[in-house]
Structures are given as structure tokens and as C-alpha cells.
Specification:
13 strands; 249 residues; four-stranded antiparallel beta sheet
């Protein structure tokens, strides 16, 4: 795969070359390969078909996860979120030690400790990962979903972008069954604070415990604002915001 440089940008097929635009720029690749009909029917491509089914499942699981979180995910994400999430879902699928090839799935992969640890700590905005923004002890009550940050000093423990005057935090408690797609999510109130020398004791309580028998996921959203004439504006369309998977149970 080559990258197209120059003034003229082409999209489409020319002879045996295919030109297309992606998130990484204008690219070109050679046309050709095995026909779709042969891939779908030839016994020699059984592994290819199995891999294709499992990749589709991983992509669907990533979409299911994003949709289950709701509008929160739009407040803190990067342009490669979808592909990064598919990669994690594929790794979770690989941890399925029960199903046959072509049928391995995320739900089984999350059924063990290794799978839960793999999803824990995932950052929806790779431009603002939690570990580079928030330097504090975060406590999660997995029974109630309560998220606490005791003795929090924002001026020292929060890396805020230039121009920020305020920040907010909100937690979410998600129950998602990756096998059925059934989900339920509850949120805490949004807690908004000025960026000053105050010492805070932050407590974020979801409105209730979500119902269901799926995987329980605990999330934290951190947003930054600039106040102008009494109105708070999101900085740079939320590119500095954090959304992190705090824990998985």
C-alpha cells in the first residue's frame, strides 16, 4: 500500500490500481486478488471465512459497546476510536477458550479475569488518556457504582489544557450482555468545579444500579471548559476530554 503525494488527488480505479482516501490520507493499492465467490465456497479458504466471521463479530461488539454508553462517548473520543475498539474486542474474542474457530466471541472472553483486565483502563480519547490527565486515587464501589476521589487538589492532580477555567466529572455504570446485546446504563449527576486552589472530595453516585446479567463496566468522563462572561464553553470541541473504563466486573 502506497501513499499518494502531489497536487492531483485521485479516487477510484485506474487499470490495476485503486486510489482511495482514508483517515491516513490518500492511498493507492493494486487491484486484484481472489474472487469473493471462491473465498466464500472453496474449502481451501475455510480459515479465511472463519476469520471473517470473527472479525465481523468483533466489529459488531465494538459498535454495541459504543452505543450502550450513549451520548457520553461523543464528548471524549478520537478519530481512530472505532478501529482501536475493534482491536480490543478481537483480543477479547481470542480469550474464548470454549467456542470453536469461527464462533469465538467477546462474551466468553470477558468471562475470565484476563478478559476483564484487558478492557479495564480503555481510553475512548487516545489524545487524552486518563493516566496522563488525572493523577489521583480513584475509588470504585462495584456494588453501587459510586466513584470517589478523596482529598483531590485539581491544581496539582489534574493536567488541564491551556485556557481552561473549569472542569466537570460524571460517572456511568453500565451492564452490557455482549451475547444478547441487552444493556442498561445509569449516570451520576455532572459535578462541575472551578480550576482553583480548592481541595475537593468528589463523590459521583449513579441514579441506580443498572439491571441485567451481563458485564458490569464503570466509566468516568472528565470535561474541560472555559468560562467567558458567565458561560462555560467546551474547549476545542472536547479534544482534551477524558473517557475511561475505570473497572470491569
Amino acid at each position: 500500500m502506497g501513499k499518494l503525494n502531489g497536487i492531483l488527488k485521485i479516487q477510484g480505479t485506474l487499470d490495476n490500481l485503486t486510489f482511495y482516501k482514508s483517515a491516513d490520507g490518500h492511498l493507492v493499492r493494486t487491484k486484484g486478488g481472489v474472487s469473493k465467490q471462491r473465498v466464500m465456497n472453496d474449502p481451501a479458504f475455510v480459515r479465511t471465512r472463519e476469520n471473517g466471521v470473527e472479525f465481523g463479530h468483533s466489529a459488531s461488539s465494538g459498535k454495541m459497546f459504543r452505543q450502550a454508553i450513549g451520548g457520553m462517548v461523543f464528548k471524549a473520543k478520537d478519530r481512530k476510536l472505532t478501529s482501536r475498539l475493534v482491536k480490543v474486542m478481537s483480543q477479547l474474542k481470542n480469550l474464548d477458550s470454549v467456542s470453536i474457530r469461527g464462533k469465538r466471541n467477546v462474551a466468553e472472553g470477558l468471562g475470565n479475569t484476563e478478559g476483564k483486565l484487558l478492557l479495564k483502563g480503555f481510553n475512548f480519547n487516545d489524545n487524552a488518556p486518563m493516566q496522563s490527565v488525572l493523577f489521583a486515587t480513584i475509588l470504585v464501589d462495584t456494588a453501587s457504582g459510586k466513584v470517589s476521589i478523596p482529598d483531590f487538589f485539581p491544581m496539582e492532580q489534574l493536567r488541564s489544557p491551556e485556557g481552561a477555567t473549569h472542569f466537570s466529572m460524571q460517572s456511568a455504570f453500565l451492564n452490557l450482555d455482549f451475547a444478547t446485546g441487552i444493556s442498561d446504563i445509569t449516570f451520576s449527576d455532572v459535578a462541575n468545579f472551578p480550576l482553583d486552589n480548592s481541595t475537593l472530595s468528589i463523590s459521583l453516585n449513579p441514579t441506580s444500579v443498572p439491571v441485567g446479567s451481563g458485564t458490569q463496566v464503570y466509566l468516568l468522563l472528565v470535561e474541560f471548559f472555559q468560562e467567558v462572561n458567565g458561560v462555560q464553553y467546551v474547549l476545542n470541541n472536547g479534544s482534551y476530554n477524558v473517557l475511561n473504563v475505570l473497572d470491569v466486573a
